């Protein structure tokens, strides 16, 4: 089989669900997932001060963010956009679409929400590599996780999320992304009749949009294209007064360091485990943004 589509867009089953053609079920209770519909699960808002809050992925037919700091009203270019897309509109949920109205929306940021698929029957695919393909459009700010995870037991337990930002050409690019799930997802698992996938947004601004989701047999996909997603890029020490070190970079990366006003204070190219001198920075909060879309926050003291 050559990357056979199992469920979702282009597959024999799950096309309406993969195209987000029906409304989501909203809940704040972990494990309370719909059998037939996508479930939007709110985890927390206001930096964890409120749980579960109202941090929901939403289905909409607009195809763009309604936040105060996006401003674009052109829908994404996915083939089934008119049927609906899934969006975690962090910007809009925080400010209600009003500039400078921070924290006045339906779900003040930082917040965390998950979007859990209906049950997916993957019987017969034990020990088979699986991948999730979907159309992606996101704008990244201070987001710790933008990922995909897999469950083989109806959502009772989940595999380690794969952060898909490192598999894209950056932000705010629109493109199809194919995420190879960890081998342990199906390895030795005899009963795959109640599987689920979920999308995760954990952080602060701006938005993530997905559409046209497919679960596929990844047997013939090259694993070298996906290994970067298995390790999170890390920064330490944090806080720091003189040097920060970046680890788990697969290739050399262009970076920019931004201050709290989003002004670039330093740019360069960095390799894995290389240190960056921040000794001349003023004390405060900074963000290092990589070309692959990953952004990390650190404090200079």
What features would you highlight for this structure?
2 helices; ten-stranded mixed beta sheet; mainly beta; 301 residues; 3% helix; four-stranded antiparallel beta sheet
Could you please describe the fold and organization of this structure?
The protein has 301 residues and is mainly beta. Helix content is 3%, strand content 39%. The protein is built from two helices and 17 strands. The strands form three sheets. Strands 1, 2, 3, 4, 5, 6, 7, 8, 9 and 10 form a ten-stranded mixed beta sheet that branches. β13 (253-258) and β14 form a beta hairpin. The chain is globular, with a radius of gyration of 19 Å. The N and C termini lie far apart (55 Å).
Radius of gyration computed on alpha carbons: 19 Å
Query: Looking at the structure, what is the overall shape?
Result: globular
How many strands, which pairing sense, and closed or not: the largest β-sheet?
10 strands, mixed
Percent of sequence in beta strands: 35-45%
Helix content: under 10%
Mean pLDDT: 90
Query: What is the CA–CA distance across the termini?
Result: 55 Å
Count of DSSP E strands? Answer: 17
Alpha-beta classification = mainly beta
H/E topology pattern: EHEEEEHEEEEEEEEEEEE
Q: What's the total helix number?
A: 2
């Amino acid at each position: 089989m050559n990357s056979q589509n199992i469920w979702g867009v282009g597959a024999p089953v799950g096309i309406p669900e993969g195209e987000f053609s029906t409304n989501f079920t909203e809940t704040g209770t972990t494990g309370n997932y719909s059998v037939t519909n996508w479930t939007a699960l709110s985890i927390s808002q206001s930096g964890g001060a409120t749980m579960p809050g109202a941090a929901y992925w939403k289905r909409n037919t607009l195809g763009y963010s309604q936040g105060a700091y996006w401003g674009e009203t052109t829908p994404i270019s996915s083939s089934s956009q008119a049927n609906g897309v899934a969006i975690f509109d962090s910007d809009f949920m925080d400010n209600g679409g009003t500039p400078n109205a921070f924290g006045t929306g339906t779900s003040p940021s930082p917040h965390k929400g998950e979007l859990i698929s209906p049950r997916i029957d993957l019987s017969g695919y034990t020990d088979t590599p699986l991948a999730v393909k979907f159309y992606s459009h996101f704008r990244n700010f201070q987001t710790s996780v933008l990922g995909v995870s897999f469950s083989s037991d109806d959502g009772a337990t989940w595999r380690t999320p794969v952060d898909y930002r490192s598999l894209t050409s950056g932000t705010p690019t629109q493109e199809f992304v194919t995420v190879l799930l960890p081998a342990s997802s199906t390895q030795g698992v005899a009963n795959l009749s109640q599987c689920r996938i979920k999308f995760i947004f954990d952080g602060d601004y701006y938005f993530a949009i997905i559409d046209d989701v497919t679960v596929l047999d990844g047997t013939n996909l090259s694993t070298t294209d996906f290994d970067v997603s298995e390790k999170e890029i890390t920064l330490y020490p944090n806080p720091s007064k003189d040097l920060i070190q970046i680890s788990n970079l697969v290739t050399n990366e262009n970076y920019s360091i931004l201050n709290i006003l989003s002004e670039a204070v330093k740019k360069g190219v960095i390799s894995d485990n290389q240190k960056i001198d921040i000794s001349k920075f003023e004390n405060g909060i900074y963000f290092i943004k990589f070309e692959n879309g990953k952004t990390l926050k650190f404090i200079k003291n």
